[in-house]
Amino acid sequence: MNFEFYNPTRLIFGAGTLSQLGAVASAQGKKALLVTGGGSVKRHGIFARATASLEAAGVSLAECTGIEPNPRITSVQRGADIARKEACDVVVALGGGSTMDAAKVIAAAVLYEGDPWDLIGHGQENWVFPTKTLPVVTVPTLAATGSEMNCGAVISNDETKIKSFAQTESLFPKVALVDPELTLSVPKDQTAYGVCDIITHVTEGYFNGIDNTPLQDRFAEGVILTALEWGKKAVADGADIEARTQVQWASIVALNGFVMAGANPAGFPVHMIEHAISAHHDITHGAGLAIVNPAWMRFAATSRPAKFVQFAERIFGLKARNSNDLDCALAGIDAFEAFLTSIGCPTRLSELGIGDELLAHYAEDAALVLRDQDGNLLGRPPMSRQNIIEVLR
Ligand code: NZQ
Ligand code: ZN
């Protein structure tokens, strides 16, 4: 097991910490580009509290509102134009993963002369990895992506129908200011999709990683068990601050690099497939994962049953006849799918009104970036186009 772990984002966590935003941002710059989504932060009073804290600390503001779920590259361009025109020297993201992702790429695009789409890997010859960005402060209002404390950002392109990612060290936010109270207003469905996203971030590492990673396995299982227990409570009662707090901490740990360090996953196949579907149908990421993940697991379990048996036993308390008991492995996947259904996630494309017309397109797009020499989608095992189509069927 060989690896390097690096995460320079300062994390400030806890109910009430939003009041520290002014102090945190003023340490990074004097004029902030405040990036927000479609209006939820204004409707729920979060925006007013954030701006009050910023203004009290002497930070002046320019605004980039209207970042859409599944943020578009056109919004990134618009944000970068505003930041340049207003001479912003720090970017503050106040919203869900979409807002944070857009803000991170805006912070890079401001200092990049070319087309911001160059920064998103989509199979181009020269994928640009920016080394300079404006400092970013993330303030998540939804627990799901972990974007607040990682160096990834997922952006969509309406023209090409590609949804893909930027990932490089300079995209780590300087500070993640995480106040679980801000998630109290997240509706039931988005809460459930977030729980699915959290679980899927660790299952990608768990099932696609190398063998013999006992500590990483326990970390991942800890995140999953926490998400199952507290996620259910957060969905049942959105006002339960304890549940919101535990779910949000799980969301951060799930994808800040720590859990998968040394597991060195061969790929993130469930995510790559979901992104390809999202790009065509603009569905919610976590809902798409709830459909793809159990189906992918059934495919992968046949080539690596022992890891799926471990999942079934340790997560759902099932008992296997032996360490390669495929029936037990599949029963664990059924239990996972039943959990997703119980919290209100879809588990079939048809539930979202998606038919099988574009399966070949999704299969092609999914393997655009994370592919092996033969063009197969990276993962354990690698997937041919036909494998992807069968999983989606
Ligand atoms: O846009 P507003 O009005 O803010 O409403 C949002 C949006 O409609 C709403 N919402 C957010 N906070 C709320 C709230 N509603 C009420 N109260 C609040 N406190 O929720 C809706 C969904 O928001 P969005 O930001 O799209 O959700 P999420 O956090 O799940 O982010 C999804 C995006 O992140 C990408 C996904 O692909 C997708 O584009 N991902 C980013 C990752 C990363 N950077 O590491 C990893 C993930 O795997 C994922 O791919
Ligand atoms: Zn995800």
From TrEMBL:
The Fe-containing alcohol dehydrogenase-like C-terminal domain, residue ranges: 191-393
GO cellular component: cytosol
Keywords: Oxidoreductase
Occurrences of domain Alcohol dehydrogenase iron-type/glycerol dehydrogenase GldA (ranges): 8-180
Single GO MF descriptor: methylglyoxal reductase (NADPH) (acetol producing) activity
Gene3D superfamilies, A to Z: 3.40.50.1970, Dehydroquinate synthase-like - alpha domain
Pfam families on file: ADH_Fe_C, Fe-ADH
Keyword set includes DNA damage: no
PANTHER family in the cross-refs: ALCOHOL DEHYDROGENASE YQHD (PTHR43633)
Family: Belongs to the iron-containing alcohol dehydrogenase family.
Protein name, entry field: Uncharacterized protein
